[in-house]
Design brief:
There is one protein chain. By secondary structure, the chain is of the alpha/beta class. The chain folds into two domains: about 200 residues, Spore Coat Polysaccharide Biosynthesis Protein SpsA, Chain A (Alpha-Beta Complex); about 50 residues. The protein is built from eleven helices and eleven strands. A seven-stranded mixed β-sheet has the order 3-2-1-4-9-6-10, with helices on both faces. A four-stranded mixed β-sheet has the order 5-11-7-8. Helix 7 crosses helix 9 and helix 10 packs antiparallel against helix 11. The longest helix has 19 residues.
């Protein structure tokens, strides 16, 4: 089956995205392979978002708007996933080959989705994939990588083979949903991957780890998410030091580490899937000693038989 014969659906939770969304909308409707359906869940916007969405929905029949009641504030993590499922549950997903949780603060290259579908056709074990996120430096206007690992599909554009998404049970409704899902993929023998190539690099108009309350709060939230997922303090410290060496220098990495430590000190709840947590920790230790690339390659080879047994 050719790329253009396969069907994909985007599901986009959004709230008050008027500052960014036109760029995103234009970059999607200009794709070489447009989505068969784009469900945009307006999570109670109070700015011009509803009007902009209505204008685009009139012009492009594949755009469908779903409106949720205003909860009074922007919600991240579990709130975003709740909004995602509000749209996901409203459609017959069996009609689609691929599903994408897609944010409305991105500017995509024209062949983005066409390339992702082709890569997944070339390798049936790829369960989720993405390109790489970049943001514009406010002082130099240069593009800066968000340094997302090759072993993950990025959270702002989670492109999934439908069968894989169903295998992993969908997204966990907690902050680290976009990390847990990729680890679950590997546990079941699927491959999670992202590529840093010119035709797959996109601009993240709101930088990773930021929030409506600023970068520090956003990165602390990431640290809590790592704690919830079951990440060890040793791995979290190493990851935080790595982030300190990249923009925003020091403060971003420190905020992640403090978010983790604060969660530990206050004994916040942790992910209850102990088997998956053990799997994640074993993998993370290998990453520290072997490097992520080698550890991921080795793990994917080890898990191949599991995938073959389930998809023979």
């Amino acid at each position: 089956m050719s790329v253009k014969e396969q069907k994909y659906v985007l599901v986009s939770p959004c709230r008050n995205e008027a500052d960014y969304m036109k760029l995103t909308l234009d970059s999607v409707v200009s794709q070489t392979v447009v989505p068969d359906l784009w469900v945009i869940v307006d999570d109670g916007s109070t700015d011009e978002t509803p009007q902009i969405l209505a204008d685009y929905a009139r012009e492009y029949p594949f755009i469908q708007i779903v409106t949720r009641e205003n909860r009074g504030h922007r919600s991240v993590g579990p709130g975003v996933i709740e909004a995602f499922y509000h749209g996901y549950d409203a459609i017959d997903v069996s009609q689609f080959d691929f599903i994408c949780k897609f944010d409305l603060d991105l500017d995509l290259p024209a062949k983005y989705f066409e390339i992702l579908i082709q890569r997944m056709n070339d390798n049936p074990r790829i369960g989720t994939c993405s390109g790489k996120a970049y943001f514009k430096d406010k002082k130099t206007d240069e593009l800066v990588s968000e340094k997302c690992g090759d072993e993950m599909s990025v959270g702002m554009t989670k492109f999934y083979r439908r069968g894989c998404f169903e295998d992993i049970g969908g997204f966990v409704r907690q902050v680290m949903w976009d990390g847990i899902d990729c680890h679950k993929c590997r546990q079941l023998g699927w491959i999670a991957v992202s590529w840093d190539e010119p035709e797959l690099r996109f601009i993240h108009l709101r930088p990773m780890g930021s929030s409506q309350q600023g970068i520090f709060t956003g990165r602390m939230r990431h640290g809590f998410g790592q704690y919830f997922m079951g990440t060890s303090l040793i791995y979290m410290t190493a990851s935080s030091v790595f982030r300190m060496l990249h923009p925003p220098y020091f403060i971003g990495g420190y905020a992640m580490w403090w978010g983790y430590v604060k969660s530990a000190l206050t004994r916040n709840p942790r992910f209850e899937d102990k088997v998956l947590v053990k799997f994640i920790r074993k993998y993370q230790i290998k990453c520290l000693f072997q490097g992520k690339a080698k550890a991921t390659e080795q793990l994917n080879k080890e898990q191949e038989q599991i995938w073959l047994e389930n998809h023979s």
